[in-house]
Amino acid sequence: MRGVVLAGLAVALWAKDPPPTFSRDVAPILYRRCAGCHHPGAVAPFSLVTYADASKRAALIATVTGHGFMPPWLPSRPRFQNERRLTPAEISTLQNWAATGAHSGNLVEAPPEPSFPEGWPLGTPGLEAEMSQPFTVPADGPDLYQCFVIPLPPAPQRYVRAIDIRPGNTRVVHHALLFQDVTGEAKRRDTGGGYSCFGTPGFLPARGLGGWTPGKQPVPEPAGMAEPLYPRSDLVLQVHYHATGKRETDRTRVALYFTLQPPRLHLTDVALGSSRIDIPAGARNFVVRDRFTLPVDVDLFGIIPHAHYVCKDMRGYAILPNGGRRTLLHIPDWNFNWQDQYRYPAPIRLRAGTRIEMEFTYDNSAENPRNPNHPPRRVVYGPATTDEMAGLHLEVVPVRASDEEELSQALWGKMMRTLGGGVYRRPQ
Ligand code: HEC
C-alpha cells in the first residue's frame, strides 16, 4: 500500500518536472565539467561526449558524482581558481537522469560537441617537443630517474608563461620535471637514450620550468611573471619511472607557451616539509609538522602539497600576528593520483610575523584502501613511490621588492637548521 502511494507520488513529481534528458540537461554538465578529461585521446580512459558514450555509463556517473569521486577535486577548503566541483543541482540532475532511464531527448537540440585544440588544454603551444626516442622501462627493478635532453632551435630570448607535459605512458611515469641547462652538461652526459639522474638533473644552475604529476592541470604563471628561456640552452626532461611488472615504453611530450614580456615579479618558494618520516606498519595517525615565520609582508598566490600513498589528511594554516588562524589548504582525503598545484582566486596578503604551519597525517594501516603494502610495512622517507614524503610549498611574492633578500636569507636559515638537525637515514 505504502509503496503504491510513494510510486504515485514519484509519478506526480515527474509529471510536473519531466525527466532530465541528455540533450537538454546532461550534455551541458558533461561538456562543462567532464569532457576536458573525458574526450577521445585525453587523460580519462573513456569519452563522455556522445549520448552513446554517456548513456551506457549513466549509473556509474550517478555513483561517482554522488560520492564526489568525479570530477576529481581534493581540497575541501578554501576556494581556489579552476575548481572542479559540481553544484548540488548538477549532481541531482545526473542522479535523476540515471534513475529515469537516461533518456536522450531530441539529440538535434543537444549543444554542439566541445572541441579541444590539438589536445593541449591551453591551446596551440609556442614550442612542442618530445623525447628523441622511446625509453624502455624493465618489468621490475628499482624506480628509475632518467634525464632526456631536448635541444632547442636558435631563438631570441623568450619568457615561459606556461608549460605542459604529456607522459607517453601514465602506467610507468610517476612524475616529470622540466629544466633548462645553460651549461651544456646535460648534452655531455647524454648517451643517446638520455642519462640516469637520481635526485638532481646533474648540472648547475638548473632552472626549473615546472612539472607534471598525475592529475595535474597546466597552470600559467600569474600576470607579470614568467621564466626566462635563454637563447643557448637545452631543455632537460627528468622522468621518474616505476616498474609495473610488465616491460613498458614511454615517449613523453612537452609544450611551452611564451610571452615576450620580461617578468616584473618572481615567485619565491616557501617550502615546509620534513624528511623525518618513519611510520611503523599499522600506525593510523602518524603526524608530520613543520612551521616557518614570515620575516616580511608577502602576497600568497598558490600552494602545492606533496606526499605519496599512505598520506591521508593535509592541512596548511597561517597563524596571523593577531592570533587568528586562516586555513590555507585542507585536503581531508588525499589521493596520490590527483596531485595538483592550487592558485587562490586572489593573492592572500600575509603580514610579517605570520606563522605558516603544516600538519600532514598518515595512515599506514590495512584500513587505508590506498596503502600499497598488503599487509602494511614500515614506511620511511624517500623519493620512491612506496616511500613517503611530506612537502607543502607556498608560492609567495614579497610585497616590497626590497624584501626579497631578507626572505631568501630566512628560508636559507630554515634549511640549514633542518640539515643541522640531521636528515633521516634509511634503515639498512
Ligand atoms: C581532471 C580530469 C577528469 C575530470 C574533470 C573528470 N574525470 Fe572522470 N575520470 C578521470 C580519470 C583519469 C579516470 C580514470 C580513473 C582514475 O584515474 O581515477 C576517470 C574515471 C571516471 C569514471 C569511472 C570510474 C570507475 O570507477 O570506473 C567515471 C564514471 C567518470 N570518470 C565520470 C566523470 C564525470 C561524470 C565527470 C564530470 C562530472 C568526470 N568524470 C570528470 C578524469 C577526469
Task: Spell out the key features of this protein.
Jelly Rolls, globular, five-stranded antiparallel beta sheet, binds heme C, four-stranded antiparallel beta sheet, disordered C terminus, 3 domains, alpha+beta, 7 helices, disordered N terminus, 428 residues
What does this structure look like?
The chain has 428 residues and is an alpha+beta fold. The protein has three domains: 14-113, no CATH class; 127-259, Jelly Rolls (Sandwich); 268-420, Jelly Rolls (Sandwich), CATH 2.60.120.230. The protein has helices spanning 2-16, 22-33, 51-55, 58-66, 88-99, 185-189, 404-420, and strands spanning 127-130, 135-137, 144-151, 158-166, 173-181, 195-196, 207-212, 227-229, 234-241, 248-250, 253-259, 268-273, 278-279, 286-293, 298-306, 311-319, 325-331, 342-350, 355-362, 379-380, 391-398. The strands form six sheets. A five-stranded antiparallel β-sheet has the order 6-3-9-5-7. The longest helix is centred in the C-terminal third of the chain and has 17 residues, at 404-420. The chain is globular, with a radius of gyration of 24 Å. The termini are far apart. Residues 1-12 and 422-428 have low confidence and may be disordered. Heme C binds at residues 33-34, 36-38, 43-45, 57, 60-61, 64-65, 70-72, 84, 86, 337. The site of heme C has 19 residues, from helix 4.
